[in-house]
Amino acid sequence: MKRQCKSGLRTLAAGSAVAAGALALTACGADNGAPSGTPTEATPTTTPGAGGIQCGKSATLKASGSTAQEYAMQSWIKSYMRACRGTRIEYEGTGSGTGQTEFLEGKTAFAGSDSPLSTDQITKSRSVCKGGGRAVHLPMLGGPISVAYNLPGVSRLILDAPTLANIYTAKITTWNDPAIAKLNPGTKLPATPIKAVHRSDSSGTTDNFTSYLNDAAPSAWPHSHDKEWKAKGGESAKGSSGLADQVKKTKGAIGYVEVSYALARKIPTVAIDTGADSPVDPNVLSSSKAISESKAIGSGNDLTLDLNYATKAPGSYPINMVTYEIVCNKGNKAETWPATKAFLTFMAGKKGQEDLTFQGYATLPADVVNKVRRNISRLS
Question: For the chain, what is the mean pLDDT?
């Protein structure tokens, strides 16, 4: 797969943040452009659309889940719906947990999630996936989870995993705490109270952030990783947009959110001290480098990535997420599956993946994307 990585992230206009409601989008064209030799959709229900996109049978698709992928989903839906005018795609950013639940209740054609289904959820999916099918994961994009902060007068801030864990367990409560000062020599830190913000909804971003704390600071973080926030205290906000807005308006606030949301609101982000030679900022390159260290696991048409949250590799940003599209390996809804399969094929195609870097998302390893394309071609 041809890979394009920018040296930095695209700066998004503050007004471009995607609303938490449904996305029903109708503009922009793109080319699917799967590389030579890559399996592609080849069924009687597939017809050529504008820009070389292969369109499935016209349908209305409803999907929900991850707010982390909303910028990417906005772009994908615009491109596909412009090329395939008979299809309408509505994606609602409800959070990964709700997206999983709605898919397992048969309410959606697919779910977006920043964390994999549990074993119990996989078992439950057999009642939705007909003909002996089960839910599988298609890793579609990656990206850094930034730690955004609101501290006037402090343009650069360095933190590490133990310090973040102590902030989120209320053991560190002011910005001039000695532990923070030690990581930021020469920086004048105010005595402003820290207001730690977490997600109120079931969130894959929370799952990945707590996975980082659990793996990189096990002695300081007393909780296991989870989509639900477990630590006591702090402030909460719903969705990535809600959390970013809360940090933006609250002096002394800190919160974990996908970097595109921080950039859209011009909120500064923390550089993470991983133990490497220098702290690492969240961006496309540093996230892609860390994700390249991940291990692919799963069998058959199922594929998940085991991220290395405790990386100490130079230039590797440790707090990352991978968003999965969740569908059935077989037994998907007959009336929507041709359009869903064609849309997923476009998302995983060359053009769909290259466009992600312009939206602030990290590049998945080429072998992973190629396997995703093969897996999609085998689903039914």
Answer: 88
Q: Where are the domains of the chain?
A: 14-142+295-304+324-378, 145-287
Spell out where the chain has E strands.
22-24, 47-48, 54-55, 60-65, 88-92, 110-113, 135-149, 158-160, 195-199, 235-237, 253-258, 271-273, 295-297, 304-306, 320-328
Torsion angles phi and psi, residue 298, rounded to 5: 120, 170
CATH architecture of 145-287: 3-Layer(aba) Sandwich (3.40)
Please tell me if the domain spanning 14-142+295-304+324-378 has the same topology as the one spanning 145-287: yes
Tokens of 270: 């923390």
Spell out the CATH class of 14-142+295-304+324-378: alpha beta
Please state the rounded mean pLDDT for residues 154-183: 98
Based on C-alpha coordinates, what's the Rg of the chain? 20
Give the integer Cα–Cα distance in Å for 229 and 208: 11
User: What pLDDT was estimated at residue 110?
Assistant: 98
pTM of the model: 0.85
pLDDT above 70: percentage of residues in the chain: 88
pLDDT confidence of residue 45: 55
Q: Return the number of other C-beta atoms located less than 10 Å from residue 306's C-beta.
A: 13
